[in-house]
Design brief:
- Chain B: Keywords: Periplasm, Signal, Transport.
- Chain B: Pfam families: SBP_bac_11 (PF13531).
- Chain B: It is found in: Periplasm.
- The complex is a heterodimer of chains A (261) and B (337).
- Chain A has 261 residues and is an all-alpha fold.
- Chain A is 79% helix and 0% strand.
- In chain B, strands 4, 5, 6, 7, 8, 10 and 11 form a seven-stranded mixed beta sheet that branches.
- In chain B, helix 6 crosses helix 7.
- Chain B is globular.
- The chains are: A mainly alpha (261), B alpha/beta (337).
- Chains A and B meet through helix 12 of A and helix 3 of B.
Chain lengths: 261, 337
């Protein structure tokens, strides 16, 4: 217990406290002015909005991937299983450069999309794509073990008691998976909000349009305005913490509703 | 027998120890210097360091080892302020060294300590366009033509981008006669910019490899490097009739050099830029040499551009920085609407 607490303090709490202290150099009014400026609000909206949208996509697509990986046996399954981890291991800047090359107007995917009038690289869509890429393993890796542990016999039992396939999914499988799904959602969201390396290359970085909050922090740092930078960082931290806390509560609530077996 | 072994082993071990000490002291340089620089000078300093190490050894008999650190100019300055033990800094703009001086790490009058504003080599801002110059870009106002996409990095995060911005501003102010009109020009110019990369190399990649945009605003030396790398059959350099004189400065970080006792070597290192060999190396790496003789020798490598300085048009870096790039400055204002 003592070890856990001291380790957590050194690694997480003290740096965070430093962040808060630095932001205290600002008067409440300055703090408010920084946060309520249109530039900051837009950057936060881009980061949080797109991160949430990307996490939702990952929740749905990730669940489908998990289902296929756990419930079906097909050639190359192990390879696909390993591929899921690639975004974890890849340096984020490499991911960013690769995605940008792919989706730029002359890229393999960018060219056909441009012909359809869809621009991905250097627009908010590009940010969204990068966030999906880096978030997918979080959903898959949290849901996968839970689904593996879920005995198919329960489904059979539900079926034999007259439940339709759809009812089985909604009333039996989904409630059991809900806590894991929510965790995956929260992790994918948190990662995408703070993501810098993979997003920065594909974003376009136009103020108010495709500028992410972490970039705004870097910009404030390059103006030697450390306190301003930490003010934005503190807001991101607080919002992320609230979201993760809320998801935790939801998760508990979902857990309590799992049918006992 | 044991004793016998010992007798044989001990001198052997001692000999090994001594010889390894000698060897390592022969390997370790007498003096270690850290040069904290910015991104597009990798190739330049690779060549310069080698030449300096030889020259210094010849002159003083002392060996020097130079370590090199590259990154965005502003973030490199921040690293030095935060404690990176740089003996010398060679950055993209005087403002970044001013920031270091502002923290008392180097003398406030650093820029007067070496000839020519402490900028031993200069450059300017030119246009890199696609082969054949399909959009017919010759001068700064051609950048505002409809349908022209301009690639330039973000002046907030890139030192090079600030030179681009100030070059355009200087042109507009001269041509249209007032700061208000220059602001209008800059506002329109940045509306033609689809991507703001965070650094100069990033912008070059966006233009050259991703194929985005019709014209790249670039340091002259970066444009030449891109041409050398990707071939003149793909791109060409257009030098506008007038542009800014970009003066990347160099300075000793007093606090560090004095603490480490490396001042003499650090001073010799920077002075070496002003020798014939130093100036040749700058010219070979597409930086404009200051030495009139070497400049004459390489005059055909560089386009004739009428160059204005930041002091002439903007009253120095500190003022330019405050007016244009600080929070709420002109650059922020043009993105307000």
């Amino acid at each position: 217990m003592g070890l856990t607490l001291s380790w957590l303090s050194i690694i997480i709490l003290i740096p965070l406290a430093g962040l808060f202290l630095k932001s205290l150099e600002l008067s409440p009014e300055q703090f408010w002015n920084i946060l309520s400026s249109r530039r900051t609000l837009n950057a936060l909206r881009v980061s949080f909005g797109l991160a949430f949208a990307a996490a939702c996509v990952n929740l749905i697509m990730g669940s489908i991937i998990v289902w296929a990986l756990v419930r079906y046996r097909f050639p190359g399954r192990r390879i696909f299983d390993a591929i899921v981890d690639v975004p974890f291991a890849l340096p984020t800047a490499v991911a960013g450069v690769a995605l940008t090359a792919l989706f730029a107007e002359k890229g393999w995917l960018g060219a056909p999309l441009a012909a359809l009038g869809i621009k991905v690289a250097f627009t908010p869509v590009g940010i969204f794509v990068a966030m999906i890429f880096i978030g997918i393993p979080f959903v898959v890796r949290t849901v996968q073990p839970v689904l593996q542990d879920l005995d198919p016999e329960i489904e059979e039992a539900a079926g034999s008691l007259g439940a339709s396939r759809w009812q089985t999914i909604i009333r039996v499988i989904l409630p059991s998976l809900a806590p894991a799904l929510l965790t995956g959602l929260a992790l994918a969201f948190a990662r995408a909000v703070g993501e810098y390396g993979s997003v920065i290359f594909i974003a376009g970085n136009l103020p108010n349009v495709s500028e992410i909050a972490p970039l705004l922090i870097v910009i404030r740092l390059s103006e030697f305005r450390y306190a301003d930078a930490t003010a934005i960082a503190v807001v991101m931290l607080v919002v992320s913490f609230v979201v993760i806390f809320a998801v935790n509560r939801l998760q508990r609530w979902a857990q309590s509703r799992i049918p006992a077996h | 027998m044991e004793l016998d072994m010992m007798r044989r082993i001990v001198p052997l071990a001692a000999g090994l120890l001594v010889s390894s000490l000698v060897a390592s002291s022969a390997l370790a340089a007498d003096i270690n210097l850290l040069n904290v620089s910015y991104d597009p000078t990798r190739e330049l300093y690779a060549e310069f360091n080698k030449a300096f190490v030889n020259a210094y050894q010849k002159e003083t008999g002392k060996s020097v080892e130079i370590k090199q650190s590259h990154g965005g100019s502003g973030s490199q300055a921040r690293a030095v302020i935060d404690g990176l033990q740089a003996d010398v800094v060679t950055l993209a703009l005087a403002y970044d060294i001013d920031a270091i001086a502002g923290k008392g790490l180097t003398a406030a009058d650093w820029q007067k300590r070496l000839p020519q504003n402490s900028s031993p080599y200069t450059s300017t801002i030119v246009f890199l366009v696609r082969k054949g110059n399909p959009k017919g870009i010759k001068d700064w106002d051609d950048l505002l033509k409809s349908g022209v996409a301009v690639i330039t990095p973000n002046p907030k995060t890139s030192g090079g981008a600030r030179w681009n911005y100030l070059a355009a501003w200087g042109f507009a102010q001269k041509k249209y006669g007032s700061a208000d009109k220059a602001k209008d020009f800059i506002g329109k110019l940045y509306q033609q910019v689809p991507v703001l990369d965070t650094g100069a190399r990033g912008a070059t990649v966006t233009f050259v490899e991703r194929g985005v945009g019709d014209v790249l605003l670039a340091w002259e030396n970066e444009a030449f490097l891109a041409l050398k790398e990707f071939g003149p059959e793909k791109f060409e350099i257009v030098a506008p009739p007038q542009s800014i004189l970009a003066e990347p400065p160099v300075a000793i970080v007093d606090k560090v050099a004095d603490k480490k006792g490396t001042r003499n070597a650090a001073d010799a290192y920077l002075q070496y830029w002003y020798t014939k060999e130093g100036q040749e190396i700058a010219a070979r790496n597409f930086y404009r040499p200051r030495d009139p003789v070497i400049a004459k020798k390489y005059e055909n490598s560089f386009a004739k551009v009428e160059l204005f300085t930041i002091d002439d048009v903007f009253g120095g870096w500190t003022k330019a920085q405050k007016e244009h790039f600080a929070d709420g400055g002109v650059f922020d204002q043009i993105y307000k609407n």
